[in-house]
């Protein structure tokens, strides 16, 4: 049988004092209310003996603060989102906040449910990598004066803080690099959605090819657990491809594995570049060229913006649109081999 959780009333009854006195002592207001040192010692000693822990939800209702932040990402197991989450959590903790996070896998309804859950938990602010279709939910948070920082992508119809990278130029630069290496049939494999980061990456790829009058070869993938079938069919049907830009490290990871299974040599048969770096890419032979996002800078901007709004209750803080630069990290997978 589970043990009943002690309340302030239980403590007061056991010590034969008022619950108000217990409350003042536990909330650090004993001196203000002129409660004797002996009484404070008596209550604190008893609390320690019985292992009393305050109800965090009840406390947040009294104070209006829970000292927690809700972090909603696409996939916490993805190296990009996992690194961002760790860095945000570290700085938040140093500033007295704890992070509650979850993955949405780009599921609109799940994101709505998570926002609703965080509301019920009275989190103080939100950090969100939003899928499509949650504009109304985020607008509702903003209308309630809740601090919201979007990252990785933003919602063009909503005026709020966001931190992203220059996706269009980054994809353009990576594609131009492949052209400069002598590749002419360059494909883009990416996820099919209208999120701003993906739209901009496609724009950058198209812009680079247009400058050289090269044909676009785009494969848009479904956001599913297994991409094997889609990528395999595409690679088998497009024999003339000599280079591929992968839109994310997830589809690149699938692509590399499939290419190996099909006997496609990197970069001898097909050169590749992945958007988003990963430690695993340095272990591959050859190492994988990547468009590396500035993860530490992104995390720093995200949590700094949110903490600033939390500390100032949103007063006098204008919304910020932060766009950071990426690095093209050139490795062996994209370098033209002599035949």
Can you put this structure into words, describing what you see?
The chain is an alpha/beta fold and 339 residues long. It has three domains: 8-54, 434 Repressor (Amino-terminal Domain); 67-164 and 295-324, 3-Layer(aba) Sandwich (Rossmann fold), CATH 3.40.50.2300; 167-293 and 328-334, Response regulator (Rossmann fold, 3-Layer(aba) Sandwich). Helix content is 45%, strand content 17%. The strands form two sheets. The chain has a six-stranded parallel beta sheet, sandwiched between helices. The protein has a six-stranded mixed beta sheet with strand order 7-6-8-9-10-12, with helices on both faces. β3 (125-128), α7 and β4 (148-151) form a beta-alpha-beta unit. α1 (8-15) packs across α2 and α8 (167-180) packs parallel to α9. The longest helix has 17 residues, at 295-311. The radius of gyration is 26 Å and the shape is elongated. The N and C termini lie far apart (75 Å). The mean pLDDT is 89.
